[in-house]
# Entry
Amino acid sequence: MKKLFLAAIAAVAMGTSAYADTIKVGVIGPFSGPFALQGKNFKAGIDAYMAVNGNKVGNDTVEIVYRDVPQADPAQSKALAQELIVKEKVQYLAGFYFTPDAMAVTPILKQGNVPMVIMNAATSAIVTKSPLVVRTSFTTWQTSTPIAKVAFDAGVKKVISVVSDYGPGIDAENAFKAGFEKAGGQVVEAIRMPLATNDFSPIMQRIRDSGAEGVFAFLPSGPTTLGFVKAYNDNGLKAAGIKFFAPGDLTQESDLPALGDAALGIQTTFHYAVSHDSPENKAFVEAATKAIGNKAELSFPSVSAYDGMYVIYKMIEATGGNQDAEKAVDAVKGLAWTSPRGPVSIDPESRHITQNIYLREVTKADDGTYINKEVQTFEKQGDPGLAAVK
Ligand code: PHB
# Structure
């Protein structure tokens, strides 16, 4: 008995959890406010994973502790991450919808001995800020590079670029410009909008005045994207024949009913469509629908959260439940599996996810719902943005 007690003390002193049978995962995301549906999708993906795979890894029980950062707020994100590490004693941090919220936490990972599994934030550079970051979502470089070729091949030679003025927007602008100019096209103007912009009429006027044949756009998914695509339709740009090109953030499935028939035909490139046709996705959508309660609310953050949990379970397995962030991250370098989105792997060098990017078109399914229908596959895409930040 005494021996056991001493062993337990030693384990605690060493910071291991040999005797702690609950492993906490702290998840930071927008669970209230205008972006609450995106956070709800994190939770749906996590719940779906745990419903299918159980809440145990070996003898250990996994417990999720949620913290709400409603809008991009790096100071709040960092404070909550610190609280999760110090008070809640989480072994893993995950979630992070907005880039600034992820960036603010990377400096404390090493000291906290905690890996970070990014389930959305899409600026290429985040993974370079700490060797303890692993990302299961996408980058805007990864998703915006293929649409540049699609735009050029559609016969469009002059494009105006419009993005939110922060990390993933600037990456998207650079990715599109690089791809489009390489193909032979020209970006005639590049507009960066403050993140909080919600009146898009003046922007629509500038797009018209630019004389461009097409517009490339990136904004973070949520009320922002819905407002932007609505403004494109309502201000007559679609009617004027100005073509629309964007990564799939702009046509997330949960926005499509509000856009209605005006969205039909919009082409985007992205890593995941809820309509993706595979047995893995069928099982995922069933479990995630049960978790979220309404299939119409399902969107892409759910799949990155689901795969993020897969990665965390692998990390827990590899460390035997002990807190060893470096060992946990090392264990998933090169990990390959079939995600609901298709085949994926964690690039051992960048710790970012390699995946197919699909060209999709908004169509009406047989049951009358609007979907992103996959029409072309760009296979095994890494992150072209990492070459740019190195
Ligand atoms: C980000 O802040 O990195 C971000 C947020 C929402 C998106 C894409 C990227 O749809």
Remarks:
- The first strand starts at residue 22 and ends at 29.
